[in-house]
Design goal:
Blueprint: H1 2-20, H2 36-40, E1 42-51, E2 55-57, E3 65-71, E4 76-83, H3 86-91, H4 95-99, H5 109-116, H6 121-127, E5 129-135, E6 141-148, E7 153-165, E8 169-176, E9 179-186
Antiparallel strand pairs: 1-2, 1-3, 1-9, 3-4, 4-5, 5-6, 6-7, 7-8, 8-9
């Protein structure tokens, strides 16, 4: 009996070692029980944006709100800003004073202020924009599409490589020409 328990224990240990080293994405922790879609669906807070030239830690500005990316099961999604006072702050700005006297004859601070007057920044920030998303065939990239009402068709806006996709954190990379931006998110 002890021999069978020892054999089962050794087999379980070997299986744990093999499967713990399996990684789909380069920054994953190992074997995941949920499918990539199951892990992605939900509301994510964008925590940090990193490029070759700059890094922006959005959590440092959480007092104003959170930038959220929502992935739905039906492959639709929304990027929105959960406003915690930034909209009110923008509404209270004296745009004319901030812009100063502009020299451009076609547009000056008065026309800018007139254009911004009465705008409800809180509503604008909270509405966000909608998109559709899908994995590529190998589930290495997320493809984002938006709907164009003039052509009644969807068009691709971005394709991002998945660096990490775990239960509570995700990291995507957008690359175009020499530009590279990493987006770190948490649930």
């Amino acid at each position: 009996m002890k021999r069978h328990i020892l054999i089962v224990g050794i087999v379980a240990l070997v299986l744990c070692m093999v499967y713990s080293s399996c990684k789909k994405y380069e920054e994953d922790y190992g074997l995941m029980m949920k499918s990539p879609k199951g892990r992605l669906v939900g509301t994510w807070k964008i925590m940090q944006l990193d490029s070759d030239t700059a890094s922006l830690k959005l959590s440092d500005y959480a007092m104003f709100g959170e930038l959220q990316m929502i992935f739905n099961k039906d492959n639709s999604g929304t990027v929105k800003f959960s406003d915690k006072g930034l909209g009110e702050l923008l509404e209270d700005i004296d745009w004319e004073e901030m812009m100063g006297d502009m020299q451009d004859s076609t547009m000056n601070a008065d026309s800018i202020q007139a254009g911004l007057e009465g705008l409800d920044f809180s509503s604008m920030l909270n509405e966000g924009f909608n998109f559709n998303w899908a994995f590529d065939d190998k589930k290495e990239y997320l493809k984002f599409k938006m709907y164009d009402s003039t052509s009644n068709a969807y068009f691709e806006i971005a394709s991002m490589r998945i660096l990490s996709l775990c239960k509570s954190d995700c990291k995507l990379r957008y690359e175009e020409d020499s530009t590279k931006v990493d987006i770190s998110m948490q649930k």
